[in-house]
UniProtKB/TrEMBL annotation:
Signal peptide: none
Protein name per Swiss-Prot or TrEMBL: L-lysine N6-monooxygenase MbtG
Its EC number(s): 1.14.13.59
Gene3D superfamilies: FAD/NAD(P)-binding domain (3.50.50.60)
Pathway given in the UniProt record: Siderophore biosynthesis
Keywords, alphabetical: FAD, Flavoprotein, Monooxygenase, NADP, Oxidoreductase
Gene name of the record: iucD
Similarity annotation: Belongs to the lysine N(6)-hydroxylase/L-ornithine N(5)-oxygenase family.
CC cofactor: FAD
The organism's place on the tree of life at top rank: Bacteria
Organism: Microbispora amethystogenes
């Protein structure tokens, strides 16, 4: 048997875990899924105990393309013997901690996943075939433990926390991205905390801080947005998260895409209504019942433009109608994420086609590579500019994996 795999996947977050789950029962499919971490974990630094999914749990790894799969969220509940309790608990939204357990369970059941394996390099092998002319063009992946050869590569390395340039030199124990909120011990009780960013992560952190047994001395929540705005979760808007809409969006001219991405921002980047209500109620409790006036200070329409270290904390320079400076002991950057091609793609990066908005991503999620290769490089969760606001979301997870898997197999295994 050839030692060339059909594909090698880089990164195992929900995206490539979905691909692994859909491929697990495909006969004769040879694949490997490399994950740098020692085991599966879903944004562990933001796995706050009260945080919930923003989507239906039916938008799991598999259900929307294969409701009979043994890797569904329902199969997990059944396996854990929790179905009756889950139904009876009637959670308005599934706890993220439970979805993380589900994802971990799936990751443990799929043998083609290798944890503790960081892909350090991807290159194209330029060997000669027997006719002496063409190269075999297979992809070679280096994991530090050895090399594997594959016809195709699927990138699923997720997004990188975004930190504005002027804040980067200050990153450390008291200035950090939200992604690290839980991953290091923090001194929060009795200190002034500023949270920058008016999206879901910012709201979840503010809610969490307000509920601590030993809360901060004060919380300042700063956002450029005109207010603390809800996610638009209404029925017609939710059609932006349908495969048919994603396909339609993908076919539009780039200028139209840009306009629509701006227009549709709050369908994906707003704050989920339940979290907003919680924050509002916590503020009521602290202000009205506990007499802590101005303990939570809200600063919408305010942009942080500078940051200076003081002998006893930080001074943030702010442009906006509320205050020109904010002094704080701790600064949490809920400033979002951006897509960056992983370092392991450095050798192939100059050969990838781009527009001014990002990588060119085809209608089966393949990148456009100007090298002679045996297969292609597919991209999960890096194509918001090309596929629309649903790209980083769980909504199209199973569908996108099925599209990629069908392309790799060369036949329609899944109805997409
Ligand atoms: C806190 C949070 C909550 C979210 N909640 C929701 C939600 O409720 N609903 C929703 O629709 N969306 C949600 N999202 C958006 C999205 O679903 C998640 O970000 C999701 O985790 C994206 O999955 P991914 O597999 O693309 O990336 P990630 O989950 O980021 O996984 C990428 C993986 O690749 C690994 N990796 C990176 N480089 C390498 C390498 N060179 N070699 C090997 N491994 C590598 C990383 O270690 C990581 O495990 C949330 C996002 C965040 C940040």
């Amino acid at each position: 048997m050839s030692d060339v795999l059909d594909y090698a996947a880089v990164g195992v977050g929900p995206a490539n875990l979905s691909l692994a789950a859909l491929g697990a029962d495909v006969e004769n499919l040879r694949s490997v899924h490399f994950e740098a971490r020692p085991g599966f974990s879903w944004h562990p630094g933001l796995l706050l105990p009260e945080a919930t999914l923003q989507v239906s749990p039916l938008k799991d790894l598999v259900t929307l393309v294969d409701p009979t799969s043994r890797y569904s969220f329902l199969a997990f509940l059944a396996n854990e013997g929790r179905l009756y309790q889950f139904l009876t608990a009637k959670f308005p939204a599934v706890l993220r901690a439970e979805f993380d357990q589900y994802l971990q369970w799936a990751s443990r059941s799929i043998p083609s996943i290798e944890f503790g394996a960081e892909v350090r390099g991807v290159r194209v092998r330029a060997g000669r075939s027997s006719d002496g002319r063409s190269s075999d063009g297979h992809f070679v992946l280096d994991t530090g433990r050895g090399e594997v050869t594959a016809r195709n590569v699927v990138l699923g390395t997720g997004q990188t926390p975004f930190v504005p340039g002027f804040l980067r030199p200050h990153l450390g124990a008291d200035v950090f991205h939200a992604e690290e909120f839980l991953s290091r011990p923090r001194e929060l009780p009795g200190r002034a905390v500023a949270v920058i960013g008016g999206g879901q992560s910012g709201a979840e952190i503010v809610r969490h801080l307000m509920r601590l047994d030993e809360p901060p001395r004060s919380i300042t929540w700063i956002t450029r947005r005109p207010g603390f705005l809800p996610m638009d979760d209404s029925p017609f808007t939710n059609e932006y998260f349908f495969p048919a809409y994603a396909r339609e969006f993908h076919g539009l001219p780039q200028a139209d895409k840009r306009e629509l991405l701006a227009e549709q921002k709050y369908a994906s980047d707003g704050i989920d209504l339940a979290t907003l209500q919680d924050v509002y109620r916590e503020r009521y409790r602290h202000e009205c019942l506990l007499g802590r006036k101005d303990w939570l200070r809200l600063m919408p329409r305010s942009e942080v433009t500078g940051c200076a270290r003081l002998s006893d904390g930080w001074e943030l320079e702010v442009k906006g109608p509320h205050a020109p400076v904010v002094r704080s002991d701790v600064v949490v950057l809920a400033t979002g994420y951006e897509y960056r091609l992983p370092d392991c793609m450095a050798e192939l990066a100059p050969h990838l086609a781009r527009t001014s908005d990002g990588l060119v991503v085809g209608d089966d999620y393949a990148l456009s590579l100007d090298l002679r290769t045996s297969g292609r490089v597919f991209l999960q969760n890096g194509a918001r500019h090309a596929w629309g606001i649903a790209d980083p979301n769980l909504s199209l997870l199973a569908w996108r994996s099925a599209v990629i898997l069908n392309a790799i197999l060369g036949y329609r295994r899944y109805n997409t």
